[in-house]
Amino acid sequence: MTKTEGTIRLTTAQAVIRWLANQYIEIDDQQMRVCGGGFGIFGHGNVTCLGEALNSVQEELPLYRGQNEQSMGFAAAGYTKQWFRQRFMFCTASAGPGTANLLTAAGLAHANRLPMLLLCGDTFMTRLPDPVLQQMENFYDPTFGVNDAFKPVTRYWDRITHPAQVIQSLPNALATMLDPADCGPAFIGLPQDVQGWAYDYPEKFFEKKVHRIRRQSPDVAEIADAVAALKEAARPMIIAGGGVQYSRAVEELTTFAETYNIPVVETIAGRANMLATHPLNIGPIGVTGSDSANAIAEKADVILAVGTRLQDFTTGSWTAFDKDAQIISVNAARHDAGKHMSLPVVGDAKLSLTALTEALDYTAPQSWVDFAKTERSKWDAYVAENVKPGNRPNSYAQAIGVVNDLCAPRDRIVAAAGGLPAEVTANWRTLDVGTVDVEFGFSCMGYEIAGAWGARIAQTQQEPEQDTITFCGDGSYMMLNSDIYSSVLSRKKLIVLVLDNGGFAVINKLQNNTGNESFNNLLEDCPTIPEPFGVDFVAHAASMGAQAEKVTNPSELGDAFKRAKASDKTYVIAMDVDPYEGWTTEGHAWWEVGTPTVTESERVRKAHEDWEASRNKQRRGV
């Protein structure tokens, strides 16, 4: 093939990386690369070609060496959350099990609507050497493989079968990742032979391009419908979700609430939309929420839901609200805006709140606002007592209170699956906006340390003087801890609080609450473990290069946390907490879980009846 003028001859892999390095985003009038780099583990499926291409752009797209592909994906999620979805990281994995390990991370990004680019090895397009190492042969469809498993958990999926295809595929993938409505992970399968095939690409394809996040204006008629409904409200309430922060609409949310004197509650993803001290912040809502937020949700007649997908932990499996309450859902995604017979306002949260503020002539009844504030005052008193050291055996809440009192306002707080998301959501008193990441969209154990590492990489690009602090249970630590080592190697300091309750204690609690006997959750309740013993988390963390110590109570935890803050190195602090008596007992809404309708256990039967007793409050909708 003769090279034509205005083209450049590159391999497929080189073209992918060169194009990615020339894509920029405009944030606060500054231009920076939209891709902050990547996480990679090389294998035969990506080292020879994609690895060669990445080696030439180490400054433009730094590659962080991962320890586990799943945790790489979690780190990429933590990174983009810190950047409010304005920037993302790629993950590259080899063909076969390396790529398969990314499936859970893709699910997390999909559930949380997070941009992440997956550049994964694939089997040979020619099929000449088949079956190759790590290939999953499909007996009826030779085109079908492990990479096809990503189709349900990605927003964009492609397999490159010819070098020219990247000219269309890469812009489409990026457009998906930057679209507020369709945002999510993008997957590009790169067959091992195609990665090395060459093509004469147009030079124009690699010119610098600056992208901006699209802001969709709301429909005028939908704004009018929302205004009409709000004007009739006797007991209005705002639910502020994670989309408020992604839209950078915190100021507009606050202005709207203050202008019309409307109480605000926060979802798990929306924690840190407002400071804890704001008089209209009535607390977190739902299953892991507050008595105050749930009290007003039960009575509200018009609910303005902004930037939330109304997950079951927010809605109490749709029992948290009056069945006749009118929901107005402001969301960039049409799929979310119309849930449960809501009045939809499909549009950007910032623009939609501005339009509502300009159009509405209304003030909420003071008696309603006073009721909400009184409920919040009662909840604040409960939390103050709940986090107090010495009020009961060591607890998650006490540890949260210690850190809350000693951390800096802009420090990043990370938590994920298990009991800690509920405890952080209920007990954390927000010191500054946008500082809390509780991963409960996919509720992934193992996100805590990996996600914090990714957040720390982003944080050092924004506020390097601040700390990233992650709360981690012993179960999650055991599931995925290797990014302690990653953080030490990359000099991205973390403060890791390992709170050890002897197993999967929150699921043991659910097991007991549904009438079941403790079984296979706490180490002491596993019949296949003859002699249970705890892990020496200090020795383990120290073996990965971190500074580490164990404390026996919250007072010692405070002293250790000060040492961790003063250190320039990843610091792990372990403390035992009680698996039975340490839980936050207030603030919970009903949650639908499957309980046995037939059982020989009287306790299980009674628990089933008690659980089902709340079903009559469940809102019917689509």
Automatic annotation (TrEMBL):
One record GO biological process: isoleucine biosynthetic process
GO cellular component terms, A-Z: acetolactate synthase complex
Keywords, in A-Z order: Hydrolase, Thiamine pyrophosphate, Transferase
Bias kind Basic and acidic residues: ranges: 601-615
Start and end residues of each Thiamine pyrophosphate enzyme central domain: 223-356
Record InterPro entries: DHS-like_NAD/FAD-binding_dom, Myo_inos_IolD, THDP-binding, Thiamin_PyroP_enz_cen_dom, Thiamin_PyroP_enz_TPP-bd_dom, TPP-bd_CS, TPP_enz, TPP_enzyme_TPP-bd
Region listing for Disordered, in residue ranges: 601-622
Protein known as: 3D-(3,5/4)-trihydroxycyclohexane-1,2-dione hydrolase
Organism per entry: Celeribacter halophilus
Native organism taxonomy: Bacteria, Pseudomonadati, Pseudomonadota, Alphaproteobacteria, Rhodobacterales
